[in-house]
Design goal:
Elements (H helix, E strand, L loop, with lengths): L3 H14 L1 E3 L1 H9 L8 E3 L1 E4 L2 H13 L4 E5 L11 H9 L1 H11 L4 H12 L14 H9 L2 E5 L12 H17 L3 E6 L7 H9 L4 E3 L26 H9 L2 H15 L1
Parallel strand pairs: 1-2, 3-4, 4-5, 5-6, 6-7
The chain binds zinc ion.
Zinc ion (ZN) binds next to strand 3.
Length: 263
């Protein structure tokens, strides 16, 4: 995230219109039967990009807002890029982006093999990208940001075998527990959920799991199927309001249809 001014406007709007809750409060709601305040809203960030530390953290601190950051443990303390950025690096922005969408339908092994093949391209030096370090994450945790689990390598969980899922969770949990982070709170990479992945999550004692389904949670929420709305730092306030109203997904297909008619 880079648009600090817009992001601060979003935070101010959220703070004025919602009760910003921490993931601990949500945990107590599910497992200790406590009540949530009216209009509860949880702020989350996926992937753990370094820009969250650089740009979001100072503003979250300034406005005294809790948030949760879901990190990809294999990337922490490394210069390994996110896999989708790496594909764009090798194939170019447009073709790479198309490929990423295509790959989201592939079996995980096929995705891994494709990346290995790309990396063997000797014409291009390996892509490097600075990732968050454990000490930066600890600093964030001390400022009220919960550091939680977004898997070990960010595969798509509905495309993984049981063995792959177990390995992802064993490794990510171990690494997060070592640093006293919230290993049992999980966000599905890309939001992709399946019956098998939920069963493995349960077997690994994951207490809460968040989707990426652009839906608002109803009164009855399953702790392993928590819905989320999506926005980013550049989302204008009018659009954020529309997203928060839940009308966004209903309006979007209509505007798409209108767009088609105009052509
Ligand atoms: Zn992600």
């Amino acid at each position: 995230m880079k648009d600090r001014a817009n992001f601060e406007g979003q935070l101010i709007y959220l703070k004025q219109n919602y009760s910003i809750v921490s993931i601990d409060q949500l945990n107590h709601f599910f497992y200790k039967n406590t009540k949530l305040p009216k209009k509860p809203l949880l702020i989350t960030f996926d992937d753990g990009d370094i820009s969250v530390y650089e740009n979001a953290l100072p503003l979250l601190k300034k406005h005294n807002l809790p948030a949760t950051l879901f990190v990809v443990t294999d990337l922490i303390n490394s210069h390994k890029p996110f896999w989708w950025d790496e594909i764009e690096y090798y194939l170019g922005k447009e073709d790479g982006n198309k490929k990423v969408w295509e790959i989201k339908n592939w079996k995980n092994k096929q995705r891994e093999d494709f990346l290995t093949k790309l990396r063997s391209n000797l014409d291009k030096p390996a892509m490097k990208y600075p990732q968050l370090t454990t000490s930066q994450l600890k600093e964030m945790q001390d400022s009220g940001i919960t550091i939680a689990n977004h898997s070990h390598t960010h595969p798509l969980f509905n495309k993984c075998t049981r063995e792959e899922l177990e390995e992802e969770l064993t490794k990510s949990k171990e690494q997060l527990q070592d640093s006293n982070f919230s290993a049992d709170i999980f966000a599905y990479p890309n939001g992709n959920h399946s019956e098998l992945s939920e069963a493995v999550l349960k077997s690994k004692n994951i207490k809460m799991a968040l989707l990426f389904d652009h839906k608002i949670n109803k009164n009855q929420v399953h702790p392993l199927q928590i819905s989320r709305l999506a926005a980013n730092d550049t989302t204008p306030l009018w659009k954020l309001k529309l997203i928060l109203s839940g009308w966004h997904t209903k309006v979007l297909p209509i505007t798409r249809t209108l767009g088609k008619l105009r052509k």
